C-alpha cells in the first residue's frame, strides 16, 4: 500500500519557495499613478474643491447674473403744475413693460433718486414742459431718461421720421453664463494644477516621503510623470463635468470640437502643473508654499478675465494681461467653446501656454530638491 | 567576507559653519549588526544619510559593497533597504498598497504578503496607514525596506517613541534579517538597544567616533565592570571624592546626581573597605547600590554627560 504523502507547507524567508516576480520597467510608474489616484479618491476635500466647488460657483453665478428682461424704469414725478399730464401721457404710451410711476413731493423725489430708488425724476418746469433729473453715470438712469422722453414725445403726438422695426434676440452664446463657464474651467485648471502638483510635492517633501522614494531605485522622472498623469486624468473629468453641467442646466452650446477643447485643457493642466512644480521646487514647509501659490495665482484671479472681461483694465497693461497663462487659457477656451475657433488660429495663445509651461519646467527641474 | 560599508574621513559642514560630521571612519563587515550610538544632535542621522547616498558629504569617501555612490547609484539602490527617521507614509493608502508601491520600484522584490506576514501586519493589510498605531507604522516602515530583499538594512532610530513590546518585536525582526545573512546599520540613543542588538558599535559625539568595539568590550574597557553608587550624609566634599579612589579595586570615581559612583573591578573587595571608611569618617551611609556597568557608564565616562539629557 502506498500512502500519498503531502509535503508540509513551510513559510520561509528564503527565495526558494516563492514564485519569481520581476517588475517590468513601467511597474514603478503604474503603481505611483495608481497610488496617487487612490489617494485623491479617498480625500473628500479634493473631490469637493476640484469637482463640486466649480459647479456650485457656476450654478450660483449663473443664477445671480442670469439674463432677464430689464426692469421697468422707476420714475418719480414731482406733484406740482403739469405733473398729472405727464403721468397720463406715460401711462398711455405703448411701451412694454410700462413705467413704474410715483407721484412725490420734490424733496422725497430727490431723496429717493439719491438713494437709487428712482432712476429718473420728472419735474414740471412751471411752463408746459418738463425737466429731467438723471445721473449720466448710472446706465439705468440714462436708459430711463431716453425711454421716458421717447414715450412722452410719442404720446404727445411726435411722428417718427423713419419707419423702424426691431427683432429681439438673446441666443445662447452671448449670455454671462456662456462667458463664465470657460473662465471657471480655466481657473479650475490653474487651481488644481498649482495645488495638486505644488502643494502635494511640498507636503511629501515635508513628510520626508520624497527622500524615502529617492532611497529606492525609483526613476525620478516616473514619479513626476505619474503626478502629471493624475492631473490629466482629473482634467478630463473636470472639463467634462463643467461642460455637461453648462449644457444641461444653462443650455449652453459648445461649438468647438471636444478634441480641441480637451487638447487645450491638457495644455493648460500641464502648463500650470509645471508652474506648480516650479513653486514647489525649494519650499520645505506647506505654509510657505501655500503663500507662494496664492501669490502666483492672485494676479491671474484679478486680471485674467475669469468673472469679467479684462478689457476694462487700462490699455497700457493689456499686453501684460495677455501674457499671463490664465488669460491665454481662458481666451483660448472661450474661442474654442463659444466660437469654435480652431487651435491653429489661436497659435499666440497656445504659444504663451507652452512658453510658461516649458520655461517653468526647465527651471523647476534645475532647482528641484528631493530632500 | 567583503566589507559591507566603508567610509573614510567623512565630513559634512552645513552652510559653511555647522560641522555635523567631522572626520568619521567606519568599516562594517557583511553580516554584522552595527550601531551608531550617541545623543540627539551627535551627527548620527547625517552620517547614516550620507552612507545611504541621500546626502552629499562635504568631503570623504563612501563605499557600499565595494561600489561608490557617484558611479553606480541605480544599481546600489537595489541592494539597500532604508528606513528614515520619521517618514510619514501616505495616510490614505492601505498597508498592502504601500508595501506594493515600494515593491514596484525594485526589479526583483519579495512578495508583499510574505513581508506583511513576517512583520505581523497581515491583519492590518487592508487598513489605512493613518489608522495604524506607532508600533505598526514603524513595522510598516521597516516592511517597505525589507520588501526589496536588501543586502544591507539602514535603520535610523527604528524604535524611538515605541512601547517596550513593539521595540522587542522590531528587535526580533532585525535579528531574523541578520540571521538570514543580512547586514544592518542602525542608529539609536537607547543604550539597551545597542547593547542587545549590535555586534559592534561606535559611540558618536559631536560628529566624531569617540569609542568603537563590541558592547562587552566597550563596557569592560571603559565602563569598569561594576558600578557602586552610594550617598553619605555629613562631611563629604570635593576633596573627599578623591579619597574614594584609594579604595581597593576602584578604577575611577565620579559624582553623579548627588551620589558618588565608583567604577569597580571587584565589588566584594571594595564594599567592605568602603563601609569601614565611612564609619571612620563618622558619616552615615544613606544609599548603596551595585550594578553591572552599562554603555551609559561608558558614555558618561567618555563625555561627562548622559546619553539622554532632556
Would you write up a description of this structure?
The complex is a heterodimer of chains A (371) and B (310). With 371 residues, chain A is mainly alpha-helical. Chain A has helices at 27-41, 44-64, 83-91, 106-114, 139-155, 176-206, 209-214, 220-250, 258-279, 286-303, 318-323, 325-339, 347-367, and strands at residues 74-78, 100-104, 120-124, 130-133. Mean pLDDT of chain A is 87; it is low at 3-17. In chain B, strand 11 and strand 12 form a beta hairpin. The longest helix of chain B is centred in the middle third of the chain and has 16 residues, at 164-179. The radius of gyration of chain B is 23 Å and the shape is elongated. The mean pLDDT of chain B is 89. Classes of the chains: A mainly alpha (371), B alpha/beta (310). The interface between A and B is large, with 32 and 40 residues.
What would the keywords be for this entry?
heterodimer, A: 371 residues, mainly alpha, abc type-2 transporter like fold, four-stranded mixed beta sheet, 13 helices, 5% strand, elongated, B: 310 residues, alpha/beta, Rossmann fold, Alpha-Beta Plaits, six-stranded mixed beta sheet, four-stranded antiparallel beta sheet
